[in-house]
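Bumping with the actual sequence this time:
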Amino acid sequence: MNALDQIKQIINENHVVLFMKGTTDFPQCGFSGKVVQILKACNAHFKDVNVLADPDIRQGIKDYANWPTIPQLYIKGEFIGGCDIVTELYESGELQEKLSGISNQ
């Protein structure tokens, strides 16, 4: 299975996925850490994918979304955005709406 197939499978199998540098417990960049904090503040259950552990996934996720930066948040298969967009959505309450009603998976 190539990186793009792996990415599609991860996104399809999890309601909320964060492709990030590091892990939920040990973010390796400030932007990833900020998105983790926001998701925790929303009590969101999410799958973290450490792009630093796999160079193919790291490049593949950029190609998949046609988005050049990490982190990248997906909710129900939809690409939401990176740190700035997630922060804006959180501050406006839109992120909480997108996350509401999602069962923990």
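The tokens above came from a reply further down the thread. Residues 44 and 103 are 9 Å apart (CA to CA).
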